[in-house]
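Office hours follow-up: a student asked to see two folded examples consecutively, so here they are.
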Amino acid sequence: METLRERKKRRTREALLQAALELFTTQGYMRTTVDEIAEAVHVSQRTFFRYFAGKEDVAFAVQEMTEAAFVAAVRARPPHEAPMEAMRQAFLEGWDTIRETVESVTPVELYLRMYRTIASTPALLAAHLRRSATTEAALAHVLAEREGVDVDTDPRPRLAVAVFGGVIRVTERHWCTSEDFGLESIRTLTASYLDQVGSALTGNWRTP
């Protein structure tokens, strides 16, 4: 059971997180300072740094949680599922869990707005790609363990993750520029693009 001290710490962290995302999405990431985030929650800068290493850390805090949940979901998929299917089902079937993960710390609408802020801010986009590479490396190790292969000598786990990650990035790019700004639209779009992977990689695109 959560103690009073633990509850207070959790609430302070969540307040800092929400304040930061609100400032990032309204006035811009580059124009927001740590002092402004701390002031919005009526705490000191020192308190902010007890919870987050810096602005980038807080900007990606929720995304880090959802990615960790996804990697765990892939690890938990039934062993008979092929790698691409395991990742696909972990993403689609775990959507409600991902939503719950987001809602446990911040409103979904704010999380979605932050997604677009990341896509439109060069410094954040570069950090996003760097962090995604770390997540993809962890995912490749999970697939290798599931399939009983050596991730360092067998290229297939990294290739499968690269394809899946590419689909996610195409989905993000499309979604960030579309008018349908709902969470469900990401799921629908991702499912649609994943369904096209086979024909995109091995099919003939030309039509008579």
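And the second, which I mentioned at the end of office hours:
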Amino acid sequence: MTETPDLSGKFAAAPAPHGRPIKRGSASAQIHDALRERIIALEFAPGAFLSRSEIATYYGVSQTPVRDAMMRLEEEGLLIIYPQSKTLVSKIDVAHAQETQFLRLSIELEVTRRLAQESAADRIGRARTCLSLQRAALESGDLDEFGRLDREYHGALYEAAGVANLWQIVTARSGHIDRLRKLNLPDPGKSTSILSCHDRILKAIESGDVPGVEAVVREHLSGTLAQVPKITEKYPEYF
């Protein structure tokens, strides 16, 4: 039986988030984003215990914004809150990941189809920049930055299609699939496959190749779920 990780004291020893204090009036949102980032990065592993009081001390705030941030993370399926007891990082839910992937594929097919139909080369500059930065991150061995840029790349496509708010909806549901991707990313060939798909998606959009972009999106978004048996066998304590 795997022992539940205890992160007590982890915040006290950590540097301030991004070297910036919490801004007045937005503490809950900032704490939510910071905790979510660390959960997705598996810095806070599935099953880990989080202390509301230590988090509040770390950020220099009262426990109220921490509580609000945690409740929002619970709604997203990333935390399990036991009232008057403890808060744990949720285990990875494969069924939830599959549902989210179905939603994302449905939306992203339409996003890229629209961009290709409009040959929207003039609107995908940000996505192209993300791809260039991803290549640089891979060359430097920074897989955390590579993963962050992966999400930014896809968000840029939604923005280019004029549906940026839908990316926020997808992101809020993507905690489980994003953690699966984090576990899958170090596998040989995975990062180069991502770069190849990202490049081919942009080229298909630029050339107006609707069938081509749809095929690449299906290929791209199916990769991680196809590796679930391998991932769960390698990291059983996370599920």
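Two things to take away from it. Confidence is low (pLDDT under 50) at residues 1-9, 12-20. The chain has twelve helices and three strands.
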